[in-house]
Amino acid sequence: MRRAAGFTLFELLVVIAILSVLTGLSVGFLGKTDPTMVANAVLGGELRAAQLSARAEGVPTEVLLQPGTDEGPATVQARLLRPVVSFRFEPNQAYEDDSLRPVLGGEDAADGRFGHARRVAPGGKGAVVRWTPTAALLDLRDGFVVRFDLLLDSAGPATLLRLPPAIELTLDADGRLRARLRVAGLGGGDNRLVPVASSQPLPRGRWCTVDLGCDTRRCWLAVDGRDVGDAVCDGVPQQEDDATFEFAPADAAFTGLVDELRWFVYQFGSPQQLPIECEAPKALRFSFDARGEAVERHAVAFTVREDGK
Q1: Beta bridge partners of 149
Q2: Cis bond upstream, residue 165 (ω within 30)
Q3: What is the full per-residue pLDDT of the chain (309 aa) written as tens digits?
Q4: Angle between helical axes of 9-30 and 35-57 (0-180°, round to 10)
Q5: pTM over 0.90
Q6: One-letter-per-residue 3-state SS of the chain
Q7: In b/e form, how buried is each residue of 278-308, taking b as 16+ CB within 10 angstroms?
């Protein structure tokens, strides 16, 4: 079975790059006329990029507008989702770098959701996926999403994944998702655990897509693109360099199949500068939900300094 036709993340990034070029060209043209038109064009380009990213990957995104200072112009900056690694479990899967190569356990299953998968069974030797990334490679500070396709044969207590000390995702006796994330306050506050729980069990005997995400303001669980649990976070995920990520560790494995396990991290793009003479009214946040619908929107009235400086 193969995925339905649609945009891949690579195709999306190509579209965003084209939009950026077109925006740059339009800025060069508009810069000869009205600086507020330039500012609106730059802001509109970043908003479109964030909305496209949200729709393509089914995750929330945001854009920040920051007023300028005496030394610099106002800026616009989008926070988008960047793919880090995808474990597809195909025979002889190639990796761009050995740092992305996991140690696999479990058994190969040719009848996965999109090709080959890994069969998980209690009592196996080692985790089904074991990977030790550096904190620079898998940087959780601005948020993350870990996504995988799962076929659960039966319910029962189990650990789906863990990356200590930041993340643990488990199943309870009824097959409901339970996550715990260790975060530090955005203002440098103490570390604390943020629990996130699903109110309904995972389906049994059929494939589903599970997301565990955090954008430093909110943590959530989603199944097949629909939120099943969330919690206020307001903190930065805590991680240790060279911590080992495990999926379905042998000491608490579930019975079933896993396919296409993917890691993404949130990352702010380069700040886009507005014309130096153009003033933003105040700091503003524009946010989009997982469907690309605007959650926080603002009418922005840029002004031009009378002295033109």
Answers
A1: 209, 259
A2: yes
A3: 334 444 565 555 555 655 555 555 454 544 456 888 999 999 999 999 899 888 888 888 999 999 987 778 999 999 888 999 999 999 988 888 899 999 999 999 999 999 999 999 777 778 999 999 998 999 999 999 999 999 999 989 999 999 999 999 999 999 999 999 999 877 666 889 999 999 899 999 999 999 999 998 899 999 999 999 999 998 999 988 889 999 999 889 899 999 999 999 999 888 999 998 888 889 999 999 888 999 998 989 888 876 655
A4: 170
A5: no
A6: CCCCCCCCHHHHHHHHHHHHHHHHHHHHHHCCCCHHHHHHHHHHHHHHHHHHHHHHHCCCEEEEEECCCCCCCCEEEEEEEEEEEEECCCCCCCCCCHHHCCEECCEEECCCCCCCEEEECCCCCCCCEEECCCCCCCCCCCCEEEEEEEEECCCCCEEEEEECCCEEEEECCCCEEEEEEEEEECCCCCEEEEEEEEEEECCECCEEEEEEEECCCEEEEEECCEEEEEEECCEEECCCCCCCEEECCHHHCCCEEEEEEEEEEEEECCCEECCCCEECCCCEEEEECCCCCEEECCCCCCEECCCCC
A7: bbbeeebebbbbbebeeeeeeeeebeeeeee
Strands 256-268 and 144-152, sheet pairing: antiparallel
Pairwise CA distance, residues 125 & 251, whole Å: 9
Residue listed under structure tokens 């999306």? 12
Distances (CA, A) of 70 to 67, 126, 162: 10, 58, 46
Nearest CA to 129 out of 157, 169, 166 is that of 169
